Amino acid sequence: MRRAHLAAALAALALTGCEKHEFEPPDRARQVAQADSAFSPALFDSLTWASREQRLQTGNEVYAAHCRKCHGPLGEGATEYARQRGLEVPSLVEPEWGYARDLEGARRRVFTGHPAGMPTWGVAGITPREIDAVSVYILEQLRPDGCAESRAGVREIARFSAGRRPRPPTQ
Questions:
Q1: What does pTM read for this prediction?
Q2: What is the rounded CA–CA span in Å between residue 139 and residue 148?
Q3: What is the DSSP letter of 92?
Q4: Residue 159 burial by CB count (10 A; 0-12/13-18/19+): exposed, middle or buried?
């Protein structure tokens, strides 16, 4: 009798385990909120760079690997890749871009992503060092108002996109 009850209980347990389970990832707003709670400006306090050129080179490489698909080689947004996925990607070079002169804000946005579709890069595997580099790259090289060398930086993006290594900025 005990064996019959035990067998019935095990069978019921086995059937319960075989029910169809659907994986439901957290919604985008929740992912961004979680990443935002993990963000701290202190992540960048101890970063040092051997040179400005090294920081910009690293930023160029990160941008090419992770940002160019959606934002385009010149940061203008609205790429074919983004359109095919129904994403509204902002231009990083528009004068009204909200992070145009805000390094901490740019770092936070790259780290936390955006509910409209930008990945939560700080959680998805880009290091704080890479986030710093790409944020500085966008603000100082990609944006036309970033610095005197920004026009040369835009030309270098095009060179990098074509598979050629960028030249260090001239002094």
A1: 0.71
A2: 12
A3: S
A4: middle
